[in-house]
Amino acid sequence: MSRVGRLPVPLPAGVDVTIEQGHVSVKGPRGELDQHVHPDLHIALGEGEVVVTRPSDRREHRSQHGLARALIQNMVTGVSEGWSKTLEIQGTGYRAEMDGNTLVLRVGYSHLVRKDPPDGIEFAVEGQLVHVRGANKQVVGQQAAEIRAVRPPEPYKGKGIRYRGEWVRRKQGKSAIA
User: Fold this and answer.
1) pTM (two decimals)
2) Which residues form the domain of 34?
3) End position of a domain, from candidates 32, 61, 80
4) Tens digits of per-residue pLDDT, 128-150?
5) Residues 36 and 101 in one domain
6) Of 80, 108, 135, the domain-final residue
7) For residues 78 and 91, what is the distance between their CA atoms, to the nearest angstrom?
8) CATH number at residue 110
9) What is the pLDDT of residue 71?
10) Could you give phi then psi for residue 150, rounded to 5 degrees?
11) Under DSSP, is residue 95 helix (H, G, I), strand (E, B) or coil?
12) Please, what's the b/e burial string for 67-92 (b: 16 or more CB within 10 A of its CB; e: otherwise)?
């Protein structure tokens, strides 16, 4: 049996879960999220927890079991606490600023790069750090990846936008032959 799938998902106070055949909705203080799950899986709402069980040990059911439980856990965490990714901007003259809700990046191009947040996502700038926050883990990660893709860190000087704590392998560069 799946080690992840057999664990119950605890529900914090203020989080409501609605279960229909193949569909799970989670409401909480930070918003509402919906997710389709495999229709063969049995999702039961107990006292303060959600339990996912599978009907058989077929390969398809085993593969969907842990996935469904993890997706439900991510939704519960998102609507109760929220998800966040932090990016660092490194480089001389590189900076970020907010223009209303729009993130404005100055990262060595001849123009400014503007990034508007989708619904449910907010950007925050704190010095050389850019915070991406929201309830949906997948959308937060996607927005952080799109911001990083504007100017990925380069291996010679390390300039660019990187995830906080990301280690960039540095190259030596050319050496002069005397």
Assistant:
1) 0.88
2) 9-80
3) 80
4) 999 999 999 999 999 999 999 99
5) no
6) 80
7) 33
8) 3.90.930.12
9) 95
10) -60, -40
11) strand
12) bbbbbbbbbbbbbbebbebebbbbbe
pLDDT in tens, 72-102: 999 999 999 999 999 999 999 999 999 999 9
pLDDT the model gives residue 84: 97
143 within a domain of the structure (yes/no): yes
Does 52 share its domain with 94? no
Residue whose entry in the numeric block shows the structure tokens 């750090």:
129
- Residues of the chain with pLDDT > 70: what percent? 98
- Both 45 and 110 in one domain: the answer is no
Mean pLDDT of the chain: 92
Q: Which pair of tokens denotes residue 175?
A: 């050496």
| Alpha-carbon gap, residue 47 to 33, rounded angstroms | 21
Residue 53's Cβ-side half-sphere holds a number of Cα atoms within 13 Å equal to: 7
Instruction: Give me the pLDDT at residue 4, please.
Output: 80
Q: Is there a domain that residue 177 lies in? A: no
With a CB cutoff of 8 Å and minimum separation 6, the contacts of 117 are 101, 102, 103, 123, 143
